Amino acid sequence: MLLRNGLEPWHLLIVVVVGMLLFGSKKLPDTARALGKSLRILKSEAKAMKNEP
Predict the structure, then answer these.
(1) Is the dihedral angle over the CA atoms 46, 51, 52, 53 positive or is it negative?
(2) Which residues cross the membrane (predicted)?
């Protein structure tokens, strides 16, 4: 199954493995949580800007 831009599932697996090597398995949950929080803030700000007159 091909994803967008020709990425295959094993590409994502390689990204995860490299991330674990760079950041260590203990820091990954905190990093993912911070990234999710940042994305939620960005989404809410973009929505607020879109609804402004």
Answers:
(1) positive
(2) 6-23
